[in-house]
Fold this sequence. Notes:
By secondary structure, the chain is an alpha+beta fold. It is 32% helix and 19% strand. The relative contact order is 0.20.
Amino acid sequence: MAGALVAKTPHFALHRAPLSSVHEGRALFPVADAWLGVLLPKRWARRAVTRNAIRRQIYEAARDQALQLPEAALVVRLRCEFSRKQFVSATSDLLKRAVRAELDQLLNRVTSSRQPDAPHAPRAVVPPEVRDAV
Length: 134
């Protein structure tokens, strides 16, 4: 949590810290890859079933974007409650889709900052005769 806040959505915040931090003479994280932690306080998700469903969505979203994630320690933090009036069931598909949409948005903000190094896909060139026919 000592890392900088790099992105946030209405329900989540993403913190980032370098992997190279040294604590007591040894590396804080022994891996040279993205490391992901999850912080889901009971204050914002009372039911364990809901916390576990959100946690699974976080790890699955990160797994889908694993190749684009930066080599850093990332912590996803739930920062406010999903409305229990809107999401009555603790593990409804509606809740899972809402959580996943926000997580994809959150992780895209981090991965999009890495994209400028990647080569751009060539644009399709439409010949004038085809363009005029349409």
